[in-house]
Amino acid sequence: MKTPLHTLAAWLCTLAAALACGTAQAAVPQTQIDWLTDFYNSTQGPGWTNHANWLSGDPCDNNWHNVTCNAGKTTVTGLHLNTHNLQGTLPGNWASGLPDLEQADLRDNHLSGSLPNLSGHPTLNAVFVGDNAFTGPLPPMTNLPELQFFYADHNQLTGSIPDLSGLPKLWFFSVSSNKLNGTISPVLPSTLLAFRVEGNALTGPAPNLPAPNNLVLGNSALCPNHLSPAPSPGWDTATAVAPWYDSCTPPPGAAAIPTLGEWALALLALLVGTAAFFLKIKSL
């Protein structure tokens, strides 16, 4: 005959077994595995420098190469595949595919196509996609409350720089050596430590300095571009170039507007030429 203690012991054993089973079955959601599988296939995974354990079981439990996870191994938090011979394009839907992603480091590969839309990603704090062959515009940058680093240098990106004013934690923004054009939004986040946009075809005035200005001495660069020259001691300090526009040039094909000095020289030359002409006539 079972006593209440036996019944309680049996219930506790059943609960312990269920908990143990639940712990063993705690795994990355299938939607994340599907996204990572799509990522692997679209970037030529078999040709990566190292793709150990990829597509084998659970990404966290099986330690897919350079995939990082949370402490409980229930969600993916990082992709660190710089200099891994990734080729092809990136899948979209980062926010829904990897909703807990914090860092993505895909620098120094052979990736092409457009950059994915990153907006609406609640945990993303670092995106490094420089030194690839991405084309098309920069993605909108809205609803990214944790974004601190964005690096997309040395690609073939076109279009304008999106509004950055809604990024409350942005420290580092660099899109140097692309094919960007248009004007720069006048408002920059006050959290910025570095802002680099040199080596593009940007026009218009330099953006207003953030208030307060936390830009670190020499960590920013605005030229070469086609920005309008205007004195700014703050940008001189931030770029460590005085004046900051020293290597900027007018837009291609733009007619140079003579300065007052040039007008004065032209008028002086005209007066001298006229006087010489009349002196010659008088001597005849």
Commentary on this structure:
- By secondary structure, this protein is an alpha/beta fold.
- It folds into two domains: 25-256, Leucine-rich repeat, LRR (right-handed beta-alpha superhelix) (Alpha-Beta Horseshoe); 257-284.
- The chain contains five helices and 14 strands.
- The strands form two sheets. The chain has a seven-stranded mixed beta sheet with strand order 1-2-4-6-8-10-12, with no helix packed on it. Strands 3-5-7-9-11-13-14 form a seven-stranded parallel beta sheet, with no helix packed on it.
- The radius of gyration is 29 Å and the shape is elongated.
- The N and C termini lie far apart (145 Å).
Can you describe this structure in just a few lines?
It contains five helices and 14 strands. The protein has helices spanning 4-25, 30-42, 94-97, 233-239, 260-283, and strands at 67-69, 76-80, 87-88, 103-105, 110-113, 126-128, 133-137, 149-151, 156-159, 172-174, 179-182, 194-196, 201-204, 226-227.
CATH architecture call of the largest domain? Alpha-Beta Horseshoe
Query: With helices defined by DSSP (H or I, 4 residues minimum), what is the helix count?
Result: 5
Counting helices, strands and paired strands, the structural category is alpha/beta
Global outline: elongated
Strand count, sense and barrel status of the largest sheet are: 7 strands, mixed
Strand content: 15-25%
- Total number of strands: 14
